[in-house]
Structures are given as structure tokens and as C-alpha cells.
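In the current project phase, our protein records have gained a C-alpha cell line. A sample record follows, to show the layout:
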Amino acid sequence: MKQPEFKTVRALSLVGCAEPIKLSEGDVEGVGRAWQRLFAEPCLNEASRLEPSVFWGATYGFDQDQQTFFAGQEGTGRSDGQAANDRLARLETTERLYAVFEHRGHPHQLGQTHGQAYDWIVASDGYTFDAPFTLERYDERCNPEDPEGYVIDLYYPVRPLS
């Protein structure tokens, strides 16, 4: 695995769909459900997206028994600028430092890359985890016609140890 790049990322306001998952039991079916719901949601349209070609995945609740997977985009969720409807979830982040790891290949192999990224941070003598969530950034490098060729950036919130 390549060394991570460290980036300070501005606060994000994401709107999308969230589903429960339970990583300790290998239950990740909610990931697919969240993406399916996102692409079927009529309130999430071009006009409400800040970056129409960028999608975000997020897993949060690592400090709990059950986690949540979120699939969404940055924006309001409606073209008229009003708040997203009740079927959509919101995820807000604050500006923070991330260790950014690159996943290359089919998204079904993301778990392996996440495991390697987690191990890298645990073994690091310069950084530690800063929040119980991770982000995945999907952009133009993710061609649905070629899932084996995906390039996905994995964002882990970290802070320097010193």
C-alpha cells in the first residue's frame, strides 16, 4: 500500500441516504441499499449538487455496536435551495486533517484497502484516529462501465501525536 497523502479538508455538507450495517458481523448489505436509494431519489438532482460528478460514501459509528453507511453528494438536496426532504439523510463534517489512501480496483475489494489503511494508522508513530468515521470519495476516475478500474480515495480523520 502506498503511503497516505495528508490533506486538510474544509467542512462538508452532504445529503443522501443512510442504511445500518454491522461490520463486526460482516453485514454490509446496507452499503448497496444506500447507493440504490441515492440513485433512485428524485429530490437529489443536478441543480442541487455542488460537484455533480463527485459522490461520497461514509461509514460512521465505529464507537457503537451498529454502524451506518451513508451515500450522498455535497449539496442541498433540492434545486430550490430548501432543505432535503425527510427521506434524505444529512452528514456534516468539520474542517479537519485526513490521511488519504488510494484504493484501485473493484469497489467490492474496498474492505481490504480499508483494513490496510486502518493498520497503517495504528502502526504509525506520528498519527492517531481523530473521529469514529471514514469517508470515500468517488469521482470521474470511477467509470461504471469498468468497475475493476475504479480509483477511490479513502479519507481517515487523523491528528498528529505530538
Summary: The mean pLDDT is 87. The two ends are 25 Å apart (CA to CA).
